[in-house]
What we know:
By secondary structure, the protein is of the alpha+beta class. It is built from 14 helices and 19 strands.
Amino acid sequence: xxxxxxxxxxxxxxxxxxxxxxxxxxxxxxxxxxxxxxxxxxxxxxxxxxxxxxxxxxxxxxxxxxxxxxxxxxxxxxxxxxxxxxxxxxxxxxxxxxxxxxxxxxxxxxxxxxxxxxxxxxxxxxxxxxxxxxxxxxxxxxxxxxxxxxxxxxxxxxxxxxxxxxxxxxxxxxxxxxxxxxxxxxxxxxxxxxxxxxxxxxxxxxxxxxxxxxxxxxxxxxxxxxxxxxxxxxxxxxxxxxxxxxxxxxxxxxxxxxxxxxxxxxxxxxxxxxxxxxxxxxxxxxxxxxxxxxxxxxxxxxxxxxxxxxxxxxxxxxxxxxxxxxxxxxxxxxxxxxxxxxxxxxxxxxxxxxxxxxxxxxxxxxxxxxxxxxxxxxxxxxxxxxxxxxxxxxxxxxxxxxxxxxxxxxxxxxxxxxxxxxxxxxxxxxxxxxxxxxxxxxxxxxxxxxxxxxxxxxxxxxxxxxxxxxxxxxxxxxxxx
Length: 481
Ligand SMILES: Cc1cc2nc3c(=O)[nH]c(=O)nc-3n(C[C@H](O)[C@H](O)[C@H](O)COP(=O)(O)OP(=O)(O)OC[C@H]3O[C@@H](n4cnc5c(N)ncnc54)[C@H](O)[C@@H]3O)c2cc1C
């Protein structure tokens, strides 16, 4: 790539091309996870679809590595790359709500908070994640779980249509009736197939919810986790709620006597009135000891969906491990409690997000995301502000995961993976859907231009064979760069 080509690219964009020599290059290249330190050659802050098409054509013709950045929240930093071109979508933030159809048209630079903000004004919400600063694009393409998932499904289960710029620079619409194979693959297959320039979602009536966290001392964790496991499969689906092991943050508004205590937390939102929410929680709470504090109460939906944001600002060190979980025997719960009892940092946490209700009502082969028979989506997140603790975080996360993984499925949510999983992990994640994904990849991106992601290698349909999952496969043999 010569200077002339770069200048021509810069002058052809309505957005801005940021180079390593620019004063704000370091700010522009920084992603959410402070553990990631990648140095792209070019960052294109695209202003519109024409800019995106220009960048895709440029990267392909110049044989440059190409990364796509939505919210920049990805654990292993798959929204950026070393030495390549980053299509940075953060300026493309329009959200258009159609209140009559209850649909929402979203540009790919939006965070889930941007979408919540826009839809809340109409008394609507799209099921997405629990941290407002997460990019809607990467979250959606990996699946998307949050407080509305039990009732309304994953984010992909509410995706009606997506516009996609393909590797050859053309743009297509993917939906149930237009390029249905691509639409199938986008729903869980990540950024493998092209740059999504617009999402059309189904929204649902959601306004005030009965929501918040309840924390118990870690000494009660076995009782809480057991009770939660037995309760959540049959609880009303309006109740979107998960269980976690974490530390009471040592700061206001948390009660000072509990600062720094290891705890078991249940955090959730009931889409309904306080009276209905209280009734829904009663069968669970009535069998549990008194909590350290119970802050469930009425609040606007965007408030619960941004509850975590102040505690997890951009730039912390993050190391993630995940698994899909079929069942949660007492033995596994005890291992969770033992492992999380000596965390690498007070920021470290484990969450178990329920997979049931509406998610189970979709067939395993209806979308690329196939863990429809799982009961939980587990994430272990090792987190700390200090870069010097990076190795300690990785070691803790890996040891924890290794201890609980034998109880879990072979695959995991792609959005809870780092880039150090062993070969076979993606095949286990997609199961019988993997071969179909590889064939669709071969159709839409045969040369693997879009490979900065949890990468599905293109394999022509005739060669593709369903991959055998590797149950119990352990990872982490390769050191992180
Ligand atoms: C604090 C925190 C909380 C989270 N909470 C949740 C949660 O509640 N629920 C949940 O489901 N997940 C959650 N996640 C995981 C989240 O879904 C992933 O980190 C996801 O990758 C974030 O998407 P992004 O657009 O911000 O990421 P980016 O880093 O920008 O991109 C991630 C991947 O998506 C691809 N991509 C991004 N935009 C596009 C596009 N327009 N077209 C094609 N490919 C694209 C990129 O190529 C990359 O491979 C959370 C993550 C964090 C850090």
